[in-house]
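G., the chain you wanted modeled:
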Amino acid sequence: MKTVSIRDLRQKWPAIERGLKGSEGLLVTRDSKPVARLLPLEDPAAAARPRFEAKAHAQWLKKTWGAGAESRAWVDAALAADRGDE
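Predicted structure as tokens:
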């Protein structure tokens, strides 16, 4: 079983997650002492998330917040002011 430090776990999560898929698990260490074991899911399809769909999200916002959800001019203006794009 491979070992990974807590620091590496925080800083290199994407690479560790990819490496976890084909392994039997990882031993998580702190100060070179084991503190936890990280195991892959047995059914990776259960962890799959649906892709973000902007149109469906906009419909949900409109249904939840009403017609005001479509007006985002104040957000665009605030972002432009924050970036100095004015």
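The helical segments are 6-11, 13-21, 54-65, 73-83.

Shout if anything looks off.
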